[in-house]
Amino acid sequence: MGSITLIGTGNMARTIGTLALTGGNSVEVMGRDQSKADDLAKTLGGGATTGRWGAVPAGDIVITALLYDGVVPVVAEYGDALAGKVVVDISNPFNATFDGLAHSEETSIAQEVAKVAPAGTDVVKAFNTVFRNVLEKGRPDVFIAGDSAQAKAGVAAFVESLGLRPLDVGGLKMAPWLEGMGLVTVGLAGKGVGHWDFALGVNEFTG
Fold it and tell me: What pTM, to 2 d.p., does this model score?
């Protein structure tokens, strides 16, 4: 199907990597700690490989599976190595009390990534409204935002390869609202729903 590079070695990298391999994609893992990257690739199996930190990723789609405060610095560090790639930001910049976003300006991590990414790099926001446990065992909708129709089509095809439904919400200026939706899911988990085994999605009504 597609070629994916995961920058990060945590739980979301493991979950997305597992689904990606099951969906027939090739997967490369990059981590600042090379031993952790090697261990994750071995755990994933399925021909998953590792790349050297900061090198040109093998994947056409590069997923930054990092905590929100590390995403922009890492993209800046990689610099021209990301030229021509589609960078997918999956982060949620929650504040310490999980009742607001960490940044006060009308922006998003994805938009800040776009500011530091090299020319020819397309940025897409995706996966941030879905809890990891739901990705592991459910089939949630995945909302995506980005300015390049071609990049979004590639990410949508990847999402479909995971057995999930991609839903395009518009340009990258919609990314702050997706981060807000991520915050809503946390609020629902703690109050309205009361558990983490759910996802926001779209039900269509006709007739």
Answer: 0.95
